[in-house]
Amino acid sequence: MATGRTYNDAIDALNSLQTPYAVIEARRKAGIRPDAASVREMRAYLARLGYSPPDLDRLNVVHVAGTKGKGSTCAFVDSILARYQRNGGPPRRVGLFTSPHLIAVRERIRIASAPISEELFARYFFEVWDRLEQNRAVAADMAAPGSKPIYARYLTLMSYHVFLSEGVDAAVYETGIGGEFDATNVVERPVATGISSLGIDHVFVLGNTVDKIAWHKAGILKPGTPAFTVEQVPAAEEVLKKRAAEKGVDLKVLKIDPRLAAARIRPDAIFQKKNATLAIALAEAALRKLDTSFSPDPDALPQAFVDGLEQVVWRGRCEVKDEDSVIWHVDGAHTVDSLKMAARWFVGDCAGRAGVGPKVLIFNQQGRTEAVDFLDGLCNTVKNADPAGKGFKHVIFCTNVTYAATGYKRDFVNRQHNPADIANMTQQRVFAERWKALDPSANIMLIPSIEEALNTARSLAEKEGEQKAQALITGSLHLVGGALGILEGADAL
Ligand SMILES: Nc1ncnc2c1ncn2[C@@H]1O[C@H](COP(=O)(O)OP(=O)(O)OP(=O)(O)O)[C@@H](O)[C@H]1O
Ligand SMILES: [Mg+2]
Ligand SMILES: [Mg+2]
């Protein structure tokens, strides 16, 4: 481990906690999946830090699981609570914990909607590090003494320390993977729980059908805590209801909130209305607990709610950046369903602009072999929306390596993928093959880094046209974060 104690040192130390590719592969082959031991382990680390699960009650946690829309829902809740507080109500300080990060690791831990500073991150990171070292013997029966939790668990643990130390009294938590065995599931008495849209993702860990996946997500439901979800496919809804009943939880399945008619949410799409509906219910449940004078109006949203929904900032999702030669459409979708949403949003936005130039796709997804099946919906949605049936003119498959010359930005170092696959662009070749079958007329390119992919799209646009090219960057939040970092300067947050 590095001897310094700067933010960069903290990120290097954190990266050393990533499970290496070889270990992941060995586990996968042996069929080892996370189980109840992971939450036990989190409790042990919490004890080494000097906390017990009841201490987390001070955070008044709003806990969100789901396949898609978790982060968006959490950002809405955070934004609503922030506006409510500015109007003079509680909470005093709102914390937000999300994953993954887009541009810098510290985005995952926010206070008052802003990522904690590099200084604060470094300080708390090493406080956690030292306490874990000093208290190796504590709860040694629940986690190996001397060990540190893996990356995502470390950040979860650290977030509790940050929020408790900084006087946060309402904290919105996005689960990492699943729910039942997720690191965030050490919280025992959240003030509200929510399950956003369910679909297929993380099949190795969670299972390959939506009912198995629903089982995991329902693991965050807690007796005595108000629980909400949005309308789901029947197989998922059935499991959620069954598990809720087993726990004695009254799970409310929400239809799109009619009060949303008063708020202009972006994008104006059903999926986002579902996220907003869930967020409203969660914020209302949290405020009932935090503010005895709060009582929801069934007919209208308070202004703070409307403002919170309209002014939320949730980067990397349905973003447009208008440059001289290219209009960049940026969205971090990375499942079959969400990529269809992203494609629909892209064609809708292009259709709303005068004089649309050639369409360019920049796509990547690393480490998931099933990602090749993401392409069909993406390709067809764009082709079908065009009166002449034309799809993307240029299709660029790149890696998630940020820069051509210097490689990964520190915050994006990822030891969980096979380095040989990245060097050989193995996955990108499979994508190219599939796209050729889907749309033989497309100009398909393999480009080794995000920086070069953006430059290629720009120079194609400059060479070809009077009209601006329309580029869609999607498939991976790492790709999108890297691209935004380059488009805005590396420290843009
Ligand atoms: N309810 C939804 N249903 C389907 N797609 C959605 C939904 N909400 C958001 N999306 C799409 O998924 C992308 C990611 O959204 P968000 O960050 O809210 O999800 P998430 O659940 O936090 O995902 P992850 O943590 O796995 O990246 C968005 O850019 C959008 O394209
Ligand atoms: Mg996910
Ligand atoms: Mg997320």
From TrEMBL:
Known catalytic reactions: (6S)-5,6,7,8-tetrahydrofolyl-(gamma-L-Glu)(n) + L-glutamate + ATP = (6S)-5,6,7,8-tetrahydrofolyl-(gamma-L-Glu)(n+1) + ADP + phosphate + H(+)
Alphabetical UniProt keywords: ATP-binding, Cytoplasm, Ligase, Magnesium, Membrane, Metal-binding, Mitochondrion, Mitochondrion inner membrane, Nucleotide-binding, One-carbon metabolism
One example of a Gene Ontology biological process annotation: one-carbon metabolic process
Pathway per the UniProt entry: Cofactor biosynthesis; tetrahydrofolylpolyglutamate biosynthesis
GO molecular function list: ATP binding; metal ion binding; tetrahydrofolylpolyglutamate synthase activity
Obligatory cofactor(s): a monovalent cation
The protein's Enzyme Commission number: 6.3.2.17
Identification of the protein by name: Folylpolyglutamate synthase
Native species: Parathielavia hyrcaniae
